[in-house]
Structure formats: structure tokens, C-alpha cells
Amino acid sequence: MELYDTTLSLHEKLEILSDAAKYDVACTSSGVDRRGKKGSLGNSCAAGICHSFAGDGRCISLLKILQSNDCIYDCKYCLSRANNDCRRATFTPEEICTLVIEFYKRNYIEGLFLSSAVYKNPTHTMELMYQTLFLLRNKYRFNGYIHVKAIPHAPDELLEQIGYLADRMSINLELPTAEGLSMLAPQKTRASILTPMRSMQQRISGYRLAIGKSATMERHRGNRYLDHSIFTDAVHIGNSSAHTNSRNTADLTHITPDMHALLTENTPISVHSQHRFSDHNKTDLDAFSISSTSAASPQNMYGHPDRPFAPAGQSTQMIIGATGETDFEILSTTQALYQNFDLKRVFYSAYIPLNEDALLPAIGTLPPLLREHRLYQADWLLRYYGFHASELLTPDRPNFNLALDPKCDWALRHLEQFPVEVACADYSTLMRVPGIGAKSALRILKARRLGPLSFDSIQKMGVVLKRAQYFITCNGKMHVPIRLDESFITRQLTATDAKANYMIAASGEIYEQLSLF
């Protein structure tokens, strides 16, 4: 029987382990809509149970804690590293249940985000986390949102059982490249992270197919690969009398004989073949994508509609600024994660210097918050606008201009595609214009059927003219006479946002999760 440290009070443990959890930013909760039910406590909303956000977009209303900060690993960037002299604590499963239920009843929280340092060994750590979730769901009948971080090297059987109790699972990639990981976290390997990531992806896909949804998460089809293992699951479910229905059949209509032939050769396919990775844009994740085998048994991959496995999907987090990767390398890794592992989200965490080490930025160095913000904007372009890393950046120009949002930065590098005539441009072309988003593009398409457009009318539709005016024409005319010159337009755009950018980049303010004290 495990003996837990009883020298610390519950309040002291909470103070230590909630503070240690603030550096993990992957805690959004969209994707699950579960109503309250009789005999259970809490519910979960698809729009996100978190109602408060920090200034940089971090979610702050989940109870975000570590199971333990007593780590056996010595990752150089981590405050809980084994060699750091800090107060250590470990929650028992019952203690976390008590906190969640009591905080929920007081309306402090609406869900739980549970992570942990590697306490004793990965198996023991995941067993503690499993016991915590099992008690919450079964003994305390907690029906609210739960996000759990998986531990590298943990047994696949434990990950599977936790996935049936949690709404979202994630495992941190930690650093954008394998070289950075081996340098700063030598006890972790890329395979120890990607193997459970692949296993979780397959189980999530199986469940989605079992309930009649597409196997892949909702994002722009240009950033989705078709996976051979997913195709196998689809065929199994589609041919099974227990699961065959019209929706499953519809999900497979896009798989042509040519695609099937390529899938059986373990070749990833992009829906837009013209956007496939070029050789210079491949990452170390691609080698692990389709040909790697999962530790999970095939019979566990198919899913069942009555047993949801992590219905809100899986996510990961990368630390930005601890190592010297370019924005192009980071975005290429992100794209590979979306295409090869079908992640719901990739989160970026600006590195806050915590430890003295020659391989890390010096303590006192400001975290790159503006760079983190630009990467989130670029991530949005990948997921919903159909952009690809190789379009936004190149090896010759591998970093964003931090004074501009990524779409403006891309447009200025591709002025040969502008100006765009709003009266006749198609939807995908309008979406690539700075200052025009998804809603305003749809409004333009509808409005131009009824009559001619003007700059005043499209501004009322939501177009941000201070950016769009340099890249569009209405009825053949520009808003103001300008020359399409990169330097000139850059000066105009950066002058507009210079004050806001300076406040983000130079204020030195660090956003943290809301303190419970």
C-alpha cells in the first residue's frame, strides 16, 4: 500500500501544486457538450467551460493542478526538475476529488485540468491519475469537463483506461525539434511522446467513426492527411452490421481507388495534392507518421458509440524560445502534427526563464509573448484558412515580421497576387486577403448578388479596411491611390499597430493563471 506524505496540509499542497501548474497552457475545453443528468454533478459545454481568459488567451477557470511536482526527470527548462531545490508535494486521489467537488459547489471552477511531474516512475504516476479520475467519475459522479496530460513511457493500457474517463487527453511535445528535446530533456525521447500520441489518435478516430462522424478533427481539409489506420477502421465499421449506416458510408465517399492504392502503400495523402510537403519542409514527425505501428491492439481501435474515448480530441504543447528554432521550423512541426496525428490543437508557450543553464536564455530575459501571439495567429491560418507552413514562411525568410500579423506578412511577400477584386473573387481568394475573415467573406459573396459593392458597404460587413485597403479593389478602384510596394505598405501597416505591438513586446508583463489565493 502506498504511503503518502502527511506532513503538508491540503491547503499547502494546493498552493504548491496549483502554482507549479501555471506554466502549462494547454487547457481549453471546447469540443464536448454534455448536459447535466440526474444523480451526477456538473456538465460540460461545447463552447468551452472556461469563462475567463488571460490577456494572451490563456484559459484560467479550470482547476489546474499537478498530481505531483516530485519529478525523477531533470529537464533543464522545468521548474519541477529533479535537481531544483523547491518544495515538493503529491496529492492523493481523494484529495483532488475533495478539491474539485468543493470548488465546484462554490462555483469557483467548472472542470479539472490535471497534469503531473513523473513521480517515482511513469506507471506509478499514471496509476495515481487514473485512480483520481475513476473516483471523480464513479464515486463522486462528477460529470464536468476533465483534461488529462499523459506521461511519456506510461503503459498503453493505462492511457486507454484514462481516455474513457477524460474529455481531452494531451501529451506535451515539449520542444519543436528532436534535437532540442535531446539537448534539454535527455530522459525523454521523440518516440516516447509520439507512440502514445498515435495510439490516442487511433482510438479517438475509432470513436468518431462509431458515432457517425468523420474520423478527422474539424479543420480546413488542406491540412488533413488520410491515415491508413483510419481507413482500416472505416472499412471495418462500414462493413460491420452493428455500425453500418448512411453517415459512415458518406464519410468514405472521398476515398477513391487511387487513394486506396496509395494508402495501402502507407503513403500520406493531402486532399490538396499541390500542397504536399516538399523535401525541405519535412520534419522528424513525418518519419513517424504512417509507417509507425501503435502499441494499441487493433481490436481497441474501432471504438463504440457508448464508450467515448477523449471526445474532445487530443492536443499538445511546445515551448517557444528555449531553443533556437525558427518560426518556419515550428510551423512545419505544427503542420506535421495536424496532418499526421490529427491533433485538435497545438499550443505554444513562451519560455519564461526559470533555471540557470548555459543552454537556456538567462534569467530575467523577457518571454517572447509577441512571438507566441503571432504563432497562434499563424496556427489559426493553418487550421481554418487553408494556409500551409511552406506558404507562410520559407527557409530563406524563416521568421515572421513581429510587427505584422502573419496574414499581412504573407500578403506582402506575395504582392503579385494582389489587388483582389471583391466583386468577382471566389471565397478562398477572399479569405487570403488581410482584413477579410470567414464571416465577412461570406457576407461579400451574398451581398454582391444583390448589387454593386462599395468600400463603405464591405466595411459594414466586417472587413477591416485599415488592412484590406492595400490588397483589394471595388469595381476596379482602390480605396486610396497607393503603389503596391512591400516597403511602403509595411510602413503604413506597422505605423497603425506600432503602439499595441510595443505594449505586448516591451512591457515585460507576464500573464499567469488566476491564483486560488
Automatic annotation (TrEMBL):
Residues 428-447 form the Helix-hairpin-helix DNA-binding motif class domain. The keyword Iron-sulfur applies. Keywords: DNA-binding, Iron, Iron-sulfur, Metal-binding, S-adenosyl-L-methionine. This is DNA-binding protein. GO terms for molecular function: catalytic activity; DNA binding; iron-sulfur cluster binding; metal ion binding. It comes from the Bacteria. Coiled coil: none annotated. SUPFAM superfamilies: Radical SAM enzymes, RuvA domain 2-like. The lineage of its organism: Bacteria, Bacillati, Bacillota, Clostridia, Eubacteriales. InterPro entries: Aldolase_TIM, DNA_rSAM_put, Endo/Exo/Phosphatase_dom_1, Hlx-hairpin-Hlx_DNA-bd_motif, rSAM, rSAM_sf, RuvA_2-like. The keyword Metal-binding applies. GO terms for biological process: DNA repair.
